[in-house]
Amino acid sequence: MVAFGADWGEPYTCEQWMNSFDITYPIADFETGMPNWYQEDIPINLQMHQIGWGLPYNIIIDHNMEVIWGGVNDLAEEEVWEEAVTMIESALNHLNVEALVDNDEDGTANECDDCPDSHLYAVGNFDFSEELVVDGLNFVYAPSIEIYDLLFLSDLVSSGDEISPCYVEASDFTGDNALDLIDIMALASYIVEGN
Question: pTM higher than 0.70, yes or no?
Answer without folding.
Answer: no
